[in-house]
Amino acid sequence: MTSDHTQIQTFCIGALTGLTLSYVYNQIKASKKSRPSSSPSSSSNSSSKSSSGASVCAAYARPNILTLQPYRCARDDYETGLLLDANENTLGPSLSSPDTQELERYPSPYQIPLKQKLSKIRNVKPENIFVGVGSDEAIDMLYRIFCIPSVSNVITTPPTYGMYKVSAVTNDVQIKPVPLSPSYDLRVPEMLEAVDENTRIIWICSPGNPTSKCVKSSDVRKIASSFSGIVVLDEAYIDFAESGSLCHLLETYPNIVVLQTLSKAFGLAGIRCGFAISSKEIIELMNRVKAPYNLNKLSSAVALDALNNYSTLQKNIKLLIKERERVKSSLESRPYVVRVQQSDSNFLLFELKRNAKLIYQVMADEYSVVTRYRGAEVHCGECVRVTVGKEEENEEFLKALDGAWERVEGEKSL
Ligand SMILES: Cc1ncc(COP(=O)(O)O)c(C=O)c1O
């Protein structure tokens, strides 16, 4: 890091957090100590426990992001009165029925009611929450904030969610894959060995997609205390997992970013609403970088409604988990199914004796039942992933699977 860079970071983090410059300077010194070196063994000995969100940002955020002046509008200062500041069309929207939501007006850039509600549910403070257009927005944003194109690298643990790679390539960031063990556990020593001085983010998916399995909290602790860069814990499916969210780790590890979404258990993939939960300084950087009005008014209203309707969510989760276990047993009773992965999620990953790709295609083409072939992923040979749906949908899937298996086997024996 150049001394210019350090000065810029000192200035920006001071402005960011309201901390005194001398305090920030000490934080930066502390973060330098805990920064991974090029030697893997020393990197795995470094600790982030003594660091703060400010020092994590100072050491790992891109310099241009630290100096970024966020977009400001008149409404940051004045929210009421005759609002003629934002070139909206005050005649109102051109809709077939009257609008009741003042859609001619931009939405709130801050989404305060939504953050307040989520903060109660997840037991975190509103200032620790970023609201995004799905968690996919947060994934891309973390690259843009913390990774320097063509310099930085990130660690992923395949088989895992594909967007970590898509966003890495988009942002010209190198991926260092450290595959999970065959039983889909994190290989912590190997992950820490892979860290070098340019490693900025470690991506962990829990419950995993496509593994459907939660990672051990002790493993996340080891990683977050040994690597002082950003540790992302993608909890898109966490509401289906008995073990619950690891959001509480944020109190100890300011470098953890938890991602959650309304797309899965809340059944709201169509509104595109996701969250990042982290130390307030990391969230502050995300808020600076985001487009000012990223979440639209319609999505925001629906999201708030869903968060206020927690009992329906819990009822639906119970139903889906019951169905998941029923479908799992049913799959296990089939002689051509080799194994069904125990699931902490709303989908099942299962291995067929052979021809998984063909069977996936026949199910879609002949039975109009669309699942996901995962056999090309590491440790997923001959595997198909299926989302657990309503009882009748699951029955249709099981019938299609039997039909496709018989069809493929029959054709092969001809
Ligand atoms: C592990 C994981 N993370 C994130 C996402 C994206 O979620 P969102 O709809 O909030 O963008 C998905 C979507 O399938 C996912 O499987």
Automatic annotation (TrEMBL):
<dbReference type="GO" id="GO:0030170">
    <property type="term" value="F:pyridoxal phosphate binding"/>
</dbReference>
<dbReference type="InterPro" id="IPR015424">
    <property type="entry name" value="PyrdxlP-dep_Trfase"/>
</dbReference>
<dbReference type="InterPro" id="IPR004839">
    <property type="entry name" value="Aminotransferase_I/II_large"/>
</dbReference>
<dbReference type="InterPro" id="IPR015421">
    <property type="entry name" value="PyrdxlP-dep_Trfase_major"/>
</dbReference>
<keyword id="KW-0032">Aminotransferase</keyword>
<dbReference type="InterPro" id="IPR005861">
    <property type="entry name" value="HisP_aminotrans"/>
</dbReference>
<keyword id="KW-0368">Histidine biosynthesis</keyword>
<dbReference type="GO" id="GO:0000105">
    <property type="term" value="P:L-histidine biosynthetic process"/>
</dbReference>
<dbReference type="Pfam" id="PF00155">
    <property type="entry name" value="Aminotran_1_2"/>
</dbReference>
<feature type="compositionally biased region" description="Low complexity">
    <location>
        <begin position="36"/>
        <end position="53"/>
    </location>
</feature>
<comment type="pathway">
    <text>Amino-acid biosynthesis; L-histidine biosynthesis; L-histidine from 5-phospho-alpha-D-ribose 1-diphosphate: step 7/9.</text>
</comment>
<dbReference type="GO" id="GO:0004400">
    <property type="term" value="F:histidinol-phosphate transaminase activity"/>
</dbReference>
<keyword id="KW-0028">Amino-acid biosynthesis</keyword>
<feature type="domain" description="Aminotransferase class I/classII large">
    <location>
        <begin position="99"/>
        <end position="401"/>
    </location>
</feature>
<dbReference type="InterPro" id="IPR001917">
    <property type="entry name" value="Aminotrans_II_pyridoxalP_BS"/>
</dbReference>
<protein>
    <recommendedName>
        <fullName>histidinol-phosphate transaminase</fullName>
        <ecNumber>2.6.1.9</ecNumber>
    </recommendedName>
</protein>
<keyword id="KW-0663">Pyridoxal phosphate</keyword>
<keyword id="KW-0808">Transferase</keyword>
<comment type="similarity">
    <text>Belongs to the class-II pyridoxal-phosphate-dependent aminotransferase family.</text>
</comment>
<dbReference type="InterPro" id="IPR015422">
    <property type="entry name" value="PyrdxlP-dep_Trfase_small"/>
</dbReference>
<feature type="region of interest" description="Disordered">
    <location>
        <begin position="32"/>
        <end position="53"/>
    </location>
</feature>
